[in-house]
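Appendix B, example 12.
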Amino acid sequence: MEIILDKTTDTPLVHFAPGLLIIEGRSITEDVFGFWTPLLNWVESYAANPETTTRVEIGLEYTSSSSNKLISQILRKITSIAAKGFDIEVIWKYEEDDESILQLGRDMESICEVPFQYLETDTVKQRSQKITIRRKKNGEQFSITQRYWEAIVRNGHDQEYSIISKEE
């Protein structure tokens, strides 16, 4: 059994499958319990019969304190199976120069039973990537950065545009 939730402006991408748990993006949903409780339930079920090795990858861009509490519950539950002899690998990804997300990872690690690996990601290059978009309403074309496109998506205006090309 696996869970796949697409990334939205308020919730992260989640992919939970036996042996692999991925959380990436922003978690600022107002319905924290509605979003995270089914995921915690999945982890509790998985922890009862885990794979020999489990890899956890977390790459948060921004998260609310309410989300942090539930993420920490998920991490504590999944890392507790290490005491039963199972291998747990936690990779905490953070953007270059994002000290708050790095510190959040260190805080989460301090309450878990396994050491984390920290992976600095270079998103500056990705966010400066050029994208050409077309406004659907009148056909106007614009060349913008990936970072600006992410702001358009976050604000819910992406349906007004079509992506024509992305710089490789």
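The CA atoms of residues 127 and 148 lie 8 Å apart. The beta strands are 3-5, 13-17, 20-27, 53-63, 87-95, 116-121, 130-135, 141-145, 161-166.
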